[in-house]
Write a structure and sequence with these properties.
The protein contains 29 helices and 16 strands. It has a 6-stranded antiparallel β-sheet with strand order 3-2-1-6-5-4. It has a 5-stranded antiparallel β-sheet with strand order 8-7-11-10-9. The longest helix is centred in the N-terminal third of the chain and has 67 residues.
Length: about 800
């Protein structure tokens, strides 16, 4: 064989070896660099997203606290019991004391409130719910409050949270401690020529926000991490460490950078005390606060460094193996190259004696001819009739188009069997249990199954129909049918197409074991209405959630939807929340099913809105303050919310809700027994009765509202525990107080009745005789006789 010199010198072998080596080396370097940079950026972004999410949650809690405080300020400012304290010009310690004590009870019920100050300018008097005391301006233990009131004319501080340390006062020992609070002032703004009439200062516990910060800070898994809140002046207004409260951090470099930034959120790295940190911040426009997180940089880069060295070692090993592979492959490729060239020469008109310099150029010429033919085949393949047909139909179904001659010609080329001059009718098929379908089959298998479904549809629809089947991707398959122009009743049309749809469902279920839900749309008179009608049909298909898998949905179902103004069944909502708090799973399920039976009569949007509302209401009411249980319940709710978009029927929603109820009850059971919860509720009811029995309006409904419980459920719970109803217990308490005042005081009957919560009426006198067997007047005579007898004996 006449082998040219370049073959004897193995020039091709050297070129192959060099090419393989360089290529593998470059690829490994590029791949390793890409993977390293990608992982580094991903780690940094993940940490940033995590910190931003935590800060946003704290910001939300702060804004929620701010709204609560402002609403409460407005309520007490307009309270008829508080207004005399603000503006009266004479001192009546008895009535003013009663009003102050009433206000103090409200602060006890709202744990986020530290105290309330009321300032009366006419009397030069401060009143405080902290001590239930009255103070002159000079003697008031919180002189900073006086300073704030004096500054009202210089600056507007109405309903703005003012972070402060306020002294805690005891009547006997004086000031001994400080509380960290946010003070809100509300007042009638004085003019330049007038003075301040009066003001209310609401002090909110800073611990309310601190607990949120501590809870979320624990999720960072790094003890050097720090989360705190600063105001627009760089003053720390909240921190997990109380000693940092009101510390001035404005001189710190990273704080200056945050305050100077015009962005609402941001992240950057900064060296603080010789340690590198990642600084993340989120702003609150309403509060003008910045929520800041400091994460040690080493926490971010620790895994990155580990990946860097692992990647480096891996690349070196792969590079060595690549070199060995290059040598082996170069030799393997080179050995048959001569045989390959000879075979090609025999089958082509080319040979080495022509104008071809060497084997490489020879192979290149043949390869170019093959590639040209391959590209031509690929081009023809890309213009496959079926794929183009589906694409065109999908475009016509999803976007508006002009019915032109060019389009008509294209429809004929693709052999589309629809006459757009005649009415069209859409049938939309949805694959049921689509999430399971996605998990069970890969993309290629799903394509094959859809192809099979379309084939079955083609075989099932009667041949007297002109129709086209469109793969709309995801879980939708659309069928467009030509409808005869001859007059036909709407009911008859839907009945015929419903029969066809049922046959399709049965055949696909039989041969492929795939369930489909069919939605019959609306008649299309004009081609340009196709996208609009299909969109309406998609919305109609959402009612599968009510009718279940394998159903056939028609526009008739819309007649059964309740279009009245929606009102959420609040009684059942309270029953559901009560049952969950008391760990009664069966009653919770029963209340939930009653709610679902009501909302299922409304539109799909109302149903989904109510479901979301229930989730957040349950979460807000049952999530307790114990960190481990709160985190566990938060995780359970997050899992529920992640699934909510995949629900296809009410049965699925019910099943997930029931699992959520079980998780809530199991968590609550671990934190507190059922008997303890019942005892606690009963104890609270008795305390309210004993404190407020003189209030003539006190009743079961008022007590239930104060405990955020259903009145029916609370009444039943109390009677089972105590043996008498709440109304009976209130009456007993009032009657005992009447007897006690008759026995121990000389007060008039009218005063005694007022102090005991009774109206002076015939009903009371009848009730007194029923309780004690004598009339009220005879009972007073008996008391006088006993006193006279006692005096005679003495």
């Amino acid at each position: 064989m006449n082998i040219p010199m370049f073959i004897k010198n193995k020039s091709i072998y050297k070129k192959l070896l060099f090419s393989f080596t360089i290529t593998i080396t470059i690829l490994i370097i590029i791949m390793s660099s890409f993977l390293y940079n990608f992982y580094a950026k991903s780690s940094y972004k993940k940490m940033d997203d995590f910190n931003s999410k935590i800060l946003s949650q704290i910001s939300y809690s702060a804004t929620y606290m701010d709204n609560l405080a402002k609403n409460y300020c407005g309520a007490i400012f307009l309270d008829n019991g508080v207004i005399p304290l603000l503006y009266r010009d004479t001192i009546d310690y008895y009535s003013m004391g009663n009003s102050l004590r009433t206000l103090e009870k409200q602060t006890v019920a709202n744990t986020y409130i530290n105290s309330i100050y009321i300032y009366n300018n006419s009397l030069n008097l401060y009143m405080s719910t902290q001590t239930n005391g009255f103070y002159s301006t000079e003697d008031f233990y919180d002189q900073e409050a006086n300073t704030l009131l004096n500054s009202i004319k210089e600056k507007n501080i109405k309903l703005i949270p003012i972070p402060r340390k306020i002294p805690v006062s005891e009547l006997t020992s004086g000031i001994y401690d400080y509380h960290y609070v946010y003070s809100y002032l509300i007042y009638n703004t004085p003019t330049k020529n007038s003075t301040l009439d009066g003001a209310i200062m609401l002090n909110i516990n800073a611990d309310y926000l601190t607990e949120t910060i501590v809870s979320l800070e624990s999720q960072t898994h790094d003890y050097d991490s720090d989360i705190f809140v600063i105001n627009e002046d760089g003053i720390i207004v909240n921190h997990s460490s109380p000693e940092m409260f009101l510390e001035d951090a404005s001189d710190k470099k990273y704080i200056k950078k945050i305050l100077e930034s015009k962005k609402d959120t941001g992240v950057f790295t900064e060296t603080i005390d010789n340690k590198k940190y990642v600084v993340t911040y989120v702003s609150s426009d309403m509060l003008k606060w910045k929520f800041v997180s400091l994460t040690p940089y080493r926490f971010v880069v620790s895994t990155i460094e580990e990946v860097k060295w692992t990647t480096l070692i891996f690349c070196l090993i792969v590079l060595l193996l690549g070199l060995i592979f290059s040598i082996i492959m170069s030799r393997s490729i080179y050995s048959p190259i001569n045989i390959l060239i000879n075979n090609i020469e025999k089958k082509t008109k080319l040979n080495k004696n022509n104008d071809i310099a060497n084997e490489v150029k020879f192979l290149n010429t043949v390869f170019n001819q093959i590639m040209s033919k391959t590209k031509e085949l690929e081009r023809k393949n890309k213009h496959n009739i079926k794929s183009q047909k589906n694409k065109l139909l999908k475009d016509l179904s999803t976007s508006e188009f002009n019915y032109s001659d060019k389009l008509l010609n294209r429809l004929k080329e693709l052999n589309i069997n629809l006459d757009f001059n005649k009415p069209l009718f859409p049938v939309l098929l949805k694959i049921d249990n689509y999430t399971d379908f996605m998990e069970q089959y890969n993309a290629q298998d799903r394509t094959l199954y859809k192809f099979a479904i379309i084939n079955i549809i083609d075989e099932t629809i009667p041949k007297d129909y002109n129709f086209e089947v469109i793969d709309m991707e995801n879980n939708y398959i659309c069928i467009l049918l030509n409808i005869s122009t001859s007059p036909i009743m709407e009911d008859e049309l839907y009945a015929k197409i419903e029969k066809v749809a049922l046959n399709m469902q049965n055949n696909i279920k039989t041969y492929l074991n795939i369930s489909l839900t069919a939605t019959l749309g609306y008649l299309i008179d004009k081609p340009n209405l196709i996208p609009t009608v299909l969109n309406d049909t998609k919305l109609l298909s959402m009612y599968r959630i009510l009718y279940g898998h394998g159903s056939i949905i028609t526009p008739v179902i819309l007649n059964d939807i309740n279009t009245d103004d929606f009102a959420f069944p609040s009684n059942q909502e309270k029953m559901l929340l009560d049952s969950l708090k008391l760990c009664n799973l069966e009653k919770a399920k029963k209340a939930y099913l009653k709610i679902m039976s009501v909302i299922s009569n409304y539109s799909y949007n109302n149903i989904m809105t109510c479901i979301m509302y229930m989730v957040f209401t349950i979460y807000t009411n049952v999530n307790n303050d114990k960190k481990s249980n709160a985190i566990k319940l938060t995780t359970a709710f997050e899992e529920f919310l992640n699934k909510i978009g995949t629900f296809e029927s009410l049965d699925e929603i019910n099943e997930v809700f029931f699992k959520l109820f079980e998780e809530i009850i199991n968590t609550l059971n671990k934190s507190q027994s059922s008997n303890n919860r019942t005892e606690s509720i009963v104890k609270n009811v008795i305390t309210i009765i004993e404190d407020s029995f003189s209030d003539k309006t006190l009743c079961l409904n008022i007590i239930a509202d104060s405990l955020s419980m259903s009145s029916v459920y609370l009444g039943k719970l109390f009677k089972e525990a105590v043996g008498k109803s709440i109304a009976e217990y209130i009456l007993d308490t009032r009657m005992n107080n009447v007897k006690n005042l008759l026995d121990t005081t000389n007060l008039s009957t009218k005063v005694i009745l007022e102090k005991s919560g009774f109206e002076q009426s015939n009903y009371f006198y009848t009730l007194f005789k029923k309780y004690y067997g004598v009339t009220l007047s005879n009972y007073r005579l008996m008391i006088c006789e006993n006193q006279l007898n006692t005096a005679d004996k003495n």
